[in-house]
Amino acid sequence: MSKPIVYGADYSVYVRIVRLTLEEKGIGYELVPVDVFAAGGIPGWYFDHQPFGRIPAFEHDGFRLHETSAITRYVDEAFDGPALQPVEARPRATMNQIIGMLDAYAYRAMVWDVAVERLEKTPPDEALIANGLLQARTTLKALSSLKAEGPWLLGEQLTLADLHA
Fold first, then answer.
1. What sign for the dihedral angle of Cα 86, 139, 55, 18?
2. Quick count: other Cβ atoms within 10 Å of Cβ 29?
3. What are the angstrom distances between the C-alpha of 137 and each of 3, 67, 76?
4. Low-confidence residues of the chain, pLDDT below 70?
5. Cα–Cα distance list, 147 to 99, 119, 144 (Å)
6. pLDDT in tens, 103-142
7. According to DSSP H, which parts of the chain are helical?
8. Of 34, 30, 75, the residue nearest 55 (C-alpha)
9. What is the pLDDT of residue 92?
10. 70 neighbors 24 (Cβ within 8 angstroms)
11. Which of 78, 91, 97, 115 has its CA 20 to 30 A from that of 160?
12. What dihedral do alpha carbons 140, 147, 14, 58 form, nearest 10°?
C-alpha cells in the first residue's frame, strides 16, 4: 500500500481533521499544498481531485475522496490502528450528529463570523460577530447536552467527533 495523499493547506480546519485522523491511526501520509486563497486562484489540476475547489481532497492507491467526513471514515475503516468510531448504533449516531452539528452550525459561526471577522477584517462587522457568537452559544449548549461522562465527547473513547471538534 502506498502512503495516502492529503491535498490542502495546513491552515485549514478540515485538512487538520484529516491529518489528526491519520496521526491517531499511526498512518504516514503526504501533504500536497493547495492554497484555495492563492492570488492566482485554485490550481486547475486540483479540480480533478475536488470538483468544487474546496479542501481537503484525499487519494490512496488510486482511490480518491473529497469531503472531510467521508475521508475520515474511510481512514478509520481502511487502516489498522485504534478504532475512531463506536461500534454500537446509538453512540455512533451521536458521533455522526456531533460531526453534522459542527459542520453545519459551529464552523461558519465560530471560524468565519467570529474569528476571521475579528482578527482579519478592518473594521470588523460587529453585527456579524454578534450573530456568530449567538450561533456559537446555541451550538456549544447543544454539544454540551450530548457530552458523555469521561474525557472525550462520547465518554472513554476518542472518536471522529473529537477530531472534528
1. negative
2. 18
3. 40, 26, 31
4. 1
5. 13, 30, 5
6. 999 999 999 999 999 999 999 999 999 999 999 999 999 9
7. 13-25, 68-78, 89-101, 117-120, 126-146, 160-164
8. 34
9. 97
10. no
11. 115
12. -160
Q: Which CATH class is domain 5-78?
A: alpha beta
**pLDDT of amino acid 157:** 95
Beta strand pairing status for 30-33 and 57-60? unpaired
Which residue has cell 458523555?
148
- The residues, ordered by sequence, that sit 6+ positions from 128 with a Cβ below 8 Å of its Cβ are 113, 117
CA end-to-end span of the chain: 30
**Radius of gyration, alpha carbons of the chain:** 17
Integer Cα distance of 126 and 112 in angstroms: 13
Rounded CA separation 21/94 (Å): 18
Q: Which three cell numbers stand for residue 161?
A: 467527533
